Amino acid sequence: MPVVHIATVVPISITVGANRIVPAIAIPHPLGDPKMDKVEEKLVRREMVVKALNTLTTEISEQTVF
Amino acid sequence: MRILHYINQFFGQKGGEEAANHPIELVEGPVGPGGALNNLLGDKAEIVNTIICGDSYFNENEGVAVMGIKEIIEQVKPDLIVAGPAFNAGRYGVACGRVGKLAAEMGITCISGMYPENPGYDLYKQTAYMVETKNSAADMRKALPNMAALISAFIEKEGKLGMPAEDGYMPRDLRVNMFAEKRGAARAVDMLIAKLAGEEFTTEYPMPVFDNVAPFAALKSLKDAKIALVTSGGVVPKGNPDHIESSSAQKYGEYSIEGIFDLTEETHETAHGGYDPVKCNENSDVVLPVDVLRDLEKEGVIGSLHNMFYTTVGNGTSVSNSKKFGAEIAQKLLDAGVSAAILTST
After folding, report:
1. CA B53 to chain centre
2. How many domains does chain A have?
3. Cβ–Cβ below 8 Å for B215 and A27
């Protein structure tokens, strides 16, 4: 079962051994940005989730930050 | 000896999580734990300046933070940099370690202190001397004397510290050439005899703990995939029905999102005590993106979103508990026929 880790502090993600890593926006709101309006924020979240989903169909041979 | 001390917003008395975005501040003399450390050092050394920096600020703006701290070091010209102690605070430990790496690059030694499971140790152990502490600030009264002892040894030995066990810091995974009384074969046989006799012996080359797993094969397609959501960001149904601990979690929760298309202020919140919860409490989709995954499910981009999500609080939670939770959650997902998981962390 492939897993993708969405995390803001990428070095921690690497240290704990995640293989598919997608950098996030900020620690308290990895998939959101309070500076954006709701519509824009959801769009950004969708882009990140689609990016994360696409890592799941991407073959990798080692830890990879997308 | 002039010391520059790096501490976070909490120990710098700026506030808790609400002040985690506090930018770099340089103040004269010692602050917080620096005062006690200064007293322990007596007239051997003095903390001349303290850098206070918010944990989120440092980790979210690492490049800028490192640049700013570099300028401060150039200005203060300390003989030694002390960072922390950070105990098991992950972002603080990473910041302390990164300051140590910067110091090393500038030819200055950094002495820090943290819990061995703090990611800051593993990341930066080779570029700083780190005293082992327990996992919470309750250990301050032991951590500071241990750090003071290491600083004293550093002063007395003019910067040439001995082996980790001798001077009281955690192994740095560095090889140092030295002369031994007995040759290697004889030492190995001594060790073997001790082992056979059930006596204690100290290995000269501990086996590294490999915790990595090979990446799992990719999915062929998303269209028929069942995707599950897992988080260490503490998202729970409003009211935290299973009382997941806000730090050092002892359990994880599994909750249904059947028929839920959006997480709202009325339905969900975070139990996590280690980051500013305001945004997540307003709209937990920013940590657990149920809303967009439901859209993608409806549009047929993914086969389905698994109707259960799994959650715990990754705040000072022990590696052993995390491993246990992870193994149980993974098994449950496999049993439910889940094809892949998205894990989100704060």
Report:
1. 16
2. 1
3. no
Query: How much is the average pLDDT of B169-179?
Result: 89
Domain that holds residue A52: 4-65
What's the DSSP call for residue B246?
Answer: S
pLDDT at B206: 73
Find the mean pLDDT for residues A37-54. Answer: 96
Do residues B142 and B252 both lie within one domain?
Answer: no
Identify whether B82 is part of a domain: yes
Task: Tell me which residue range forms the domain holding B293.
Answer: 226-344
Final residue in a domain of this structure, among B121, B143, B167:
B167
Q: Do B156 and B240 sit in the same domain of this protein? A: no
Which of B275, B302, B345 lies at the smallest CB-CB distance from A53?
B302
Q: Smallest Cβ distance to A2: which of B94, B119, B218?
A: B218
C-alpha to C-alpha distance for A54 and A44, rounded to whole angstroms: 15
Q: Closest Cα partner for B119 from B95, B149, B138, B147?
A: B95
Write the DSSP symbol of residue A36: S
For B247, phi then psi, to 5°, come to -150, 165
Considering its fold, how many domains does chain B have in total? 2
Contacts of A11 in chain B (CB under 8 A): 94, 119, 123
What interface predicted TM-score (ipTM) does this complex get? 0.97
Residue B10 within a domain: yes
- For chain A positions 30-49, those within 8 Å of chain B (CB to CB) are 30-32, 34, 41-42, 45-46, 48-49
